Amino acid sequence: MSTFKAPKGTYDLIPPYSAKYLAVRDAISGPLRKSGYGYIETPGFEDVNLFARGVGESTDIVTKEMYTLTTKGGSELALRPEGTASVLRAALEASLHKQGNLPVKLWYSGSYYRYERPQKGRYRHFSQVGAEAIGAEDPALDAELIILADQAYRSLGLRNFRILLNSLGDKECRPVYREALQTFLRGLDLDEDTLRRADINPLRVLDDKRESVQKQLVGAPLLRDYLCDACKTYHEEVRALITAAGVVFEDDPKLVRGLDYYTRTTFEFVHDGLGSQSAVGGGGRYDGLSEMIGGPVLPSVGWALGVDRTVLALEAEGVELDIPATTSVFAVAIGEEARRVLFGKVTELRKAGIAADFAFGGKGLKGAMKDANRSGARFTVVAGERDLAEGVVQLKDMESGEQEAVALGALVEAVRAKLA
Asked: Cβ(91)–Cβ(106) under 8 Å?
């Protein structure tokens, strides 16, 4: 047993369970890749001020949950707690918005880090797939991203998720609502930290999960009653486009995302089979984020879907993913000459695009056949001295148990035909 263990609140992905995570990542990114989104990858750490400005200094993420460090040169860095700020920073740095093709459509996948109290569905190291459409203010873009996420989840076989939708207004109408909400919150029996949050960003109080706070929020003013005409029109268009696409959603006037940069469209994907950590993903429009981090005006929209929580949602629904076996052919050699020959055939099979493995370690026939069974391979190729003298190998179908002699030179084509 190793002296070391994975840090608290983290996990190791190991086969065969890790295949689920790869399948989920592929399924989420699939609709994006077919819709003009290009892949982007950013560093695992950034200047701490990128998140302080973008995510919001009053958010729990910045005040309590970021992993920060000081380099030998004195720079203050933070492990990335979310993806949007990093992706926008990278797009601005590379001047992608100046190449004349807006919006810039990007997707990404990676690990993120937050110092939270670990529980099922909430980790200190977690995985997300995200998408960002940068540089265009268009309700069709908001609708596109919601529809693509819905397609991704349905392609996995998920059915019991809900889409919550709201509008957070913009710089014209939100200040009026902010003042009304602050007036309401000051009349409640709230602790000092919550009152302080109400002064800095009162919308964050609406996102407070404590029952003692939620009970007092009954009757709080709703942002939808304060939306300006432009925001109302924009939101109705988003709703109409989603509806026309056959995507079912729920209007949630109390929905507030936990990051400061959101404006107008905001949405969340929730799964009721996950308990308290019911959100499996979410996102929204963030028209002012570029300016917050020193860039030009670039209205944008995006989302991030949790790979970890999506896997838990699949398990909650009892959905078994159709994950192909990692090995199609397993080679078992009897004798040194057969080992050399079959090892060469395994290499040929791989070059031909056929997943193949080999009985390593010099095991006997019985032990090697056990390895073949455990590999999940559809076929096993067995050869000994007599087979080689006759110029053949024995090809065994592991499902039916049938076995036939195949000419050594025809092995690749014979396997290819049977797998077709």
From this structure: yes
